[in-house]
Amino acid sequence: MTREEILKQIDNKYEELGIPAEAMLEGLLWSKPMVYWDYIQTDALLGLQVQRTTLPDEMVFIMYHQINELLFKMILWEIDQVAKAEELSANKFTKHLLRISRYFDMLASSFDIMGDGMDKDQYLQFRHTLTPASGFQSAQYRMIEFASTELINLIDIRFRATIDRNTPFEHAYEHLYWQAAGKNYTTGQKSTLLDNFEKKYMGDFIDFMKDYNSINLAMKFKSLNEEHQKNLDLINAMRHYDHTVNVVWVMAHYNAAIKYIGGGDATGGSNWTKYMHPKYQKRIFFPFLWSNEEVENWGIDNLEGYKVLSSAD
Asked: Has this prediction a pTM greater than 0.70?
């Protein structure tokens, strides 16, 4: 593009915005040149790691979880490219799912950073300074779940038969699978962990659930025409994402917790063994893409892999 063509497009752009192009161009005379550390906000980013103890390996724990949250943000960003697309093809759907899966593949394989990269004795010393906080309280991870599947698939398996698409969102929320980590369903009493989490995010979660009720990844797939729904690349991408998030990633987290605290309580006091293991809750984003046998054995004997479908299936 020539210099004259560029200037003409700048004129047109700012004319449409009602802003004099001359003012914008003059502003360039006084603006600073871009440098890497300003663009990435390196100083701000590296100033976010604040330890509560003097134990060196606490820094590993903090930075690892901050990296997780950055990857969760990237995943939500990619989900929205599908969920909010007005025109959606199987190729576009597949492209973004593969991006999302790469992020979760990275997350699932990253537990070695904590599993082998932290001294267990140090962890057992600094972990109690986190009480009653817990990684359970990652709002972005809950939003990833809401944006990935129909809400019924996130309901505690004991209550799924009593809930449908006509159930008020507030009632469904009270029966999400992860409520079991901090709620006594007999008395209705909630732990401090869950109570604090809901005071901060419950309103946002209800709004998010409503917003994605008809545009979550499962619903977007069902809205595709029959030809696109039979696209094997898309189906395999969805199965890979589902298995990676709900089996591989969860079990990597589960096994890391077992290594450090055995069967003991988490820092937030959650009964994490009851809600985390996939074999109990059978959290599956796209159950319509799995066979009855695969669903039955979810999280039990298919941890190492699953069948990639081919045209012969």
From this structure: yes
